[in-house]
Amino acid sequence: MGSGQVTTSSEPFDFQGKHVTVAGLGVSGVPAAKVLRGLGARVTVVNDGGDERARAQAAELEALGVTVRLGDGATLPEDTELIVTAPGWKPDKPLFLAAAEAGVPVWGDVELAWRLRGRGGREAAPWLAVTGTNGKTTTVRMLASILKAAGLRTAAVGNIGVSLLDAVTGGTEYDVLAVELSSYQLHWAPSLRAHSAAVLNLAPDHLDWHGSMEAYAADKGRVYEGNQVACVYNVADKATEDLVREADVEEGCRAVGFTLGAPAPGQLGVVEGILVDRAFVEDRQKNAQEIAEVSDVDPPAPHNIANALAAAGLARAFGVPAAAVRDGLRAFTPDAHRIAHVADVGGVAYVNDSKATNTHATEASLAAYESIVWIAGGLAKGATFDELVAGAAKRLRGAVLIGADRALIREALARHAPEVPVVDLDRTDTGAMLQAVQEARRLARPGDTVLLAPACASMDMFTNYNKRGDAFAEAVRELGA
Fold first, then answer.
1. Under-50 pLDDT residues of the chain
2. Residue from 34, 136, 148, 337 carrying the catalytic annotation
3. How far apart are CA 308 and CA 326, in angstroms?
4. What phi and psi, each to the nearest 5 degrees, are found at residue 141?
5. Is residue 376 within 8 Å of residue 454, measured between CB atoms?
6. Is 34 a catalytic residue?
7. N or C end of the chain: smaller count of CB under 10 Å?
């Protein structure tokens, strides 16, 4: 792990009179445009689309003196001095190529929030940052619950759906922020320097955006740059430790691992059903601190225990006492679409893990149950399914496939689990979920789990994974009616 003087380019930026182009409307672009306009910038928003929602957002911004160009996200507005982009805009878009040629810097909304923290005389709240392919939202929400249990003023913000800009420019004062960051956001946040950060895991995802696994990992690794106290990594995922080794951090910052096994000195882990800390205790060679029990984690699936240990590591790095870790985990309520038990019908458990939108998340979900009727499919985003199916084959009672790219999963099942009965639903309308649940009930036996863990994105059939999970839950309720 590198160390020494951290150099950043995050000096104060005077926005008064500057021409700033905001790339993209939506959950990040609209707040960014409003904040920049309030700071005295001349703001132009460019957006690829011009649907009804975009037109409504444009009207709202134009009333504030913002110029909006709908349907023209490719052209760099004249005299632009800075671009603030929505995180999902790909780096190879013509707008950014033109900006590079003109020497115009590009920031994301996270970079803007980082630069604006502490303005107006307020003390800037430190950031405890979390990234990884899977588990980010759960870990950040666990972390916020632990911090609150310690009596700290905090919020879970960032990629979790709560604007970081609102957190740093609004009227609420915080002691510390629990920040979820995606690889997109990290790509566009070059000067971010967290108090402490965690990379939970790394698996192929969003490679169509990043271009390669190496580029994806490098963007995830940015979260460790300039860390002050702790770089928290996953002992079971060597790639996360490699990112720590490559990071340039402040003098004295430590590498802290988490493991589902017994922890070595400098790690957090599990011993006989107890979550223990051997990183933030005196004499780590000889001592360990009990921080919670496995039964305090809901649900106590292996990947979720790992999330809890990562959250505990970040909280302990901030000085939170062990009792607050326990109390915060007990108070935590899991996301409605993440390993959520919906109902038991006829001796069969129905579990909603609609948020398992890639193979890595689905692998963890499938590992949590012994006998499964698996509902899967959607948009594959370039993923392959052979490894996933091969690893889960012995647990599968049956499979029901939905969505645009279901053939990829069907072919993997044929290769690696040919004895597993498969129902292939040739439809992508939202009503397919009711039929999928009915087919799953037909395949299931008492003691089985019908598991919605799609391993794919939802947008071929549903607005988002929440809507997909809601459709599953509603279909299950109809079974029990």
1. 2-9
2. 136
3. 10
4. -70, -40
5. yes
6. no
7. C
Collect all residues with Cβ–Cβ distance below 8 Å to 14 and sequence separation of at least 6.
none
Given the residues 187, 195, 206, 381, the one annotated as active site:
206
Is 159 a residue of the active site?
A: yes
List the one residue out of 189, 242, 173 whose CA is nearest residue 1.
Answer: 242
- Residue 332 tokens read as 């935590």
pLDDT of residue 208: 63
The whole-number pLDDT of residue 206 equals 60
The pLDDT assigned to 110 comes to 94
Structure tokens at 289: 């601190």
* Residue recorded with tokens 């959950």: 27
Amino acid at 148: K
- Taking alpha carbons only, the member of 167, 163, 17 closest to residue 82 is 17
Task: Give the whole-angstrom CA distance, residue 211 versus residue 228.
Answer: 30
At residue 306's C-alpha, the angle toward residues 300 and 308, to 5°, is 75
Two structure tokens written together for 152 = 């700290």
Q: 150 CB contacts (<8 Å, ≥6 apart)? A: 315, 320, 321, 324, 328
**Alpha-carbon separation of residue 302 from 42, 135, 261, 296, 464 (angstroms):** 50, 12, 11, 13, 26
